[in-house]
Structures are given as C-alpha cells and as structure tokens.
Amino acid sequence: MIQIISFIGFTALVAIIAYIATRKTDENSADGYFLGGRSLTAVVIAGSLLLTNLSTEQLVGLNGAAYKEGLLVMTWETLAAIAIVITALFLLPRYLKGGITTVPQFLEKRYDAQTKRITSILFLAGYVIIFLPIVLYSGALALNGMFGIPELLGVSEETALWITVWGIGIVGSIYAIFGGLKAVAVSDLINAVGLLIGGVLIPYFGLKLIGDGNMMTGLNTLMTSQPERFNSIGSESSSIPFSTFFTGMMLVQVFYWGTNQAIIQRALGAVNLKEGQKGLMLASFIKILGPIIVVLPGMIAFYLFGGELENADKAYPMLVNKVLPTYLIGFFAAVLFGAILSSFNSGLNSSVTLFGVDLYRPFFNKEASEEQVVKAGKKFGIGLAIFAMLIAPMIAKFPGGLFAYLQEANGAYSIPILTIIVVGYLTKYVPAKAAKIGLASGVVLYIISQFILKPYVFGTDNYPHFLHVMFILFVFNVIIMLLIGKVSPRETPYIQEYTKEVDITPWKYVKPVGIAISIIVISVYVYFS
Predict the structure, then answer these.
(1) Alpha-carbon gap, residue 448 to 8, rounded angstroms
(2) How far apart (Å, rounded) are the C-alpha atoms in residues 370 and 376?
(3) I want to staple 454 with a disulfide (CB 3.0 to 4.6 A). Which of 379, 406, 463, 468 is the partner?
(4) Which residues, at least 6 apart from 228, have a Cβ–Cβ distance to it below 8 Å?
(5) Chain CA centroid to CA 133, Å
(6) What does pLDDT average to over the chain?
(7) pLDDT band at 176; cut points 50, 70, 90
(8) Can you tell me whether residue 270 is helix, strand or coil?
(9) Burial tier of 217 (Cβ tally within 10 Å: 0-12, 13-18, 19+)
(10) What secondary structure letter does DSSP report for 272?
(11) Contact at 8 Å (CB) between 309 and 315?
(12) Contact between residue 277 and residue 499 where contact means Cβ atoms under 8 Å apart
C-alpha cells in the first residue's frame, strides 16, 4: 500500500506544481504555447533538457550495453557534454538572434520555404515512426518488468503492455497538448530532481550489496574484480570504436543537442541568451556525471549476476528489484514514470510545434491567427498521440535488435539536416537548391549504404561502422553544397537579422566554463584509458 501511495503522491505533486507554474502563461499565443512565453530560466532549461534525454532508453538500454561491454559505452553521455557546449557557444546565439520558434524556421530564412517544409516533414517522420512509439513501448516494458504490472493487475503481459502504453500516452498527452512547453518543462524539472535522486540510489545500494554494507568497499571490489571493463577506449570490434570519436560520434551528438527540435526547444524558450547558455552549461556539467546513473548500474549487474543474462536489457530492471528497498519502490516507480512521460510529451510537444508553425499555416490556412495555429497544433497532437499509442504495443512482435536498428536508422535524416544547418550558418552564398540536393543526397545515400550495400553486398562484418558512414556522407554533402554555391551562388549574401525578441547578451562566463567542461571530459577519458 505504501508503494501505491508514494507513487500517486509524487505524480500528483508534479501535476499540481506544473499547473500552478503555468496558469498565468498565455497559451493562446504561439510563443506562449510553443516556447512557454520565452520565460524559461537556466535551472528549468537544464532540468528539462536532462529529463527529456534521460528515459527508459538510457536507463534500460545503456545500462544493458554497459552490462555487455563495460565503461566504454559512457561515450554517449560524456561526449554529449562537449556537444552541449558547442550548442551554447555557436548555435543558440544565432537561434535566439533570429527569434525562431523551430529550427526549420531558420532554414526558411536562410534558404527558402520549401527547404523548411521538407525538413519539418523529416523531423515529424522521425518522431512519428521511430521516437514516440519506441518511448511508449520501452517505458511500458520497463515499468511492467520492474514492478510486476501483469501480476499486480492479474492480466497477460500483452494486455499489461497495452494498459501501460495507453496510461503513459494519455497522461503525457495532457501535459504536452493542453499544457504547452512550460508545463512540460516545469514537470521535467521536478521529475529530473527525483530521477537524479532515484537514479543514484540504484548504484548506491548495489555497491553496498557488493561491499557487505560499505559502498566504497563495494566500488573497490567492482573495479579490482573486472579492471578490463573499466577501460573507456573501445576497440575496432566494440560497438563504439575509438576512431568514431573523431568521425560521426560528435556529429550525432551535435545534431541531437543542437538541432533536434525536441531538445533545443527548451533553450529556444529561454528568457534571454544568458539564461539559455547558463542552462545548457549546467546540463552539460551534470551530463558528465550521467554514467553514474546509466552505466555504473549495468556494470554492477554484471558483477552480481555473473554475466549470465541472455538478454542484457533485463539487467537494469533485475538490479532494481534486487537492491532497492521495498519502501522506495513506489517513489522510484513515480520517478521512472516521470522520465518516460518527459521523453514522450517532449517529443509530442515538438511535433505539435513543427506542425502548427511550419506546416499548418503555409499549407492549410495562410491567414490563420496565432490562436488558430495553436488549436490546429493541439488537434494534430491528439491524433499523433493516438497513432503512437496504437503502434507502440505492436513493436513487441518485431524480432530482437529493433532498438539498435532504429538508432542506426536515425542517421537517414539527422546528418542531412545537420549538414544544411552548418553550411547555412557558415556560408553566405550557398543557394536553396544546394540545401535540397544536400537533403536528398544525404537521405538516399545513407539508406542505400546501410540497408542495401551493408546487408546484401558487402556484409555486416566487412562494412564500415555506421558512425564512419555518417561522417563520410557529411563531408561529401558539404563539399557538394559548397561546389553548387561556387557555380551557382545566391544573388545576394545571406545576412542574419536581429529580431530583438530576445536579449542576446551572452553570459560572461560561458567560454571559460565551456573550456573547463571540455577539459574535465578529456581528463575522464585519459584516466580510464
């Protein structure tokens, strides 16, 4: 009973605080609904960024990867810190200077409206087909596995999956569709605090179990018993070869933290550039500590379970069941529920934003008022949420390895979009047709490479790592765009105008803090190499 009470209590507390914090925000205007009235401060931005990123894909998936390969998978967390620094220094000032609500809006100003629409459709396709259903499915799978939902409700695993998926989807939709970005961000902040506390408790109790009640003894035992698993540098046969650090890994990180609408929308809602940069830097610093929550538990599970689990993704749920005291299970369930909600409602809110701002007005109602745009976006969001909730349980019928497949599939749109954004900001004369060719070339060549040449021509074992392929195609498409710009340049140079919607005075400590964070990341790799 105490588990149920603590779960309901914490979940209700988050909802009440989010309502109080957002009741004075004008949700009928585009800025009010999509960007929280451009009122987000550093702490709210950092908390929302972290919880949008941290969900069951990381808690279950990354800990599962750590169970199999050890510390080297921390790359996905620690290198993200440098990507966030790059976003704060290079991308965010330009975004806020242009007063944009979505990343594709910049592409319209830099290239043309058609480029914006193509990019918005690519983003939406990624969210609808990949991101939202996977968040619902993986979240429901984790909750069902950790807390015995089928047994608790007396239903089959398939029925429990449908119930949990729809429960997460309905609650997340209420936040995202009817609350707007500020409700999402405020709820994220509260859940982020809970997740950091709950997430740290798992390795804490795990190390105490290994050390017979002493955490430091447990850590020492873990490190001395398997020193080879504490190597941060992957071999060419590992899932993340060290050579990818200098090719596609950083491109993927910069795309995710700097151009992915579901992530960067938090920083776009900053009250000013100073608060946006402070929020990003705070998130970057905390990201360095991320492996404590999403890598270390997997390594503890490997020690406790002897590396005998057939399915590594079961490592984290089994560890939670083994080490967490009964009185904390309800709290951790609520925190995990909040993390799942965060990823889902953030993706849904960003999809609503992309549709309302970038597609509804130009395609369906050119004379639409801001209030009409918001209403249209909400209706689209409801349909999108229902679609995701219908699709998510069916993922269980796919064969194993789906998540790795989808992670690789994301490259089909992420790198082409990053390419035209980078070229757009660094050049003045590259024309719109170069962007369209870059998008088409990037998408088509990546699909041919990974889903035709790799499996059917060369074979998986004889083909370059997909991160290397991303880098090769990035460089190739940049060169193509620059050549087009040389042969057929714009008639007039692109000059970014300052809309003055947001104060873009930078935080005076942003550069030294960014340098310090980068040095810490490099030092961590040197220490564990």
Answers:
(1) 48
(2) 10
(3) 463
(4) 70
(5) 14
(6) 82
(7) low
(8) strand
(9) middle
(10) B
(11) yes
(12) no
CA dihedral 146, 313, 311, 221 (to 10 degrees): -90
Cα angle at 157 between 152 and 163, to 5 degrees?
A: 70
Both tokens assigned to 206:
């795990």
- Residues 367-417: tens digit of each pLDDT: 777 777 777 877 888 888 888 888 888 776 654 444 556 667 788 888 999
CA 339, 51, 288 angle in degrees (round to 5)?
125
Fold for domain 2-397+502-528? Answer: Sodium/glucose cotransporter (1.20.1730)
Report domain extents, the chain: 2-397+502-528, 402-497
pLDDT of 397: 66
Can you list the alpha helix ranges (DSSP code H) found in 361-465? 370-391, 402-409, 411-426, 432-448
Summarised one tens digit per residue, pLDDT across range 133-168 is 888 887 887 778 777 788 878 888 888 889 988 988
Looking at residue 185, what is its pLDDT?
Answer: 58
Looking at residue 208, its amino acid is: K
Record the tokens describing residue 297, joined without a space.
Answer: 């538990």
Q: pTM score, two decimals? A: 0.80
Check the CA dihedral 527-222-286-255 and report its sign.
positive
Q: Write the DSSP symbol of residue 106.
A: H
Measured distance CA(30)–CA(378) in Å, rounded: 12
Which residue is associated with the tokens 């980068």? 518
What is the residue whose two structure tokens read 């021509």?
457
Statement: residue 120 has pLDDT above 90: no
Residue 503 tokens, joined: 């104060």
C-alpha distance across the termini of the chain, in Å = 47
Joined together, the tokens standing for residue 13 give 């507390």
Q: Pick the most confident of 107-111, 174-178, 512-516.
A: 512-516
pLDDT, tens digit, 9 for 90 and up, residues 70-80: 898 888 889 99
CA-based radius of gyration for the chain: 23
Q: Do 411 and 466 form a contact (C-beta atoms < 8 A)? A: yes
Q: Indicate the SS3 state at residue 308.
A: coil
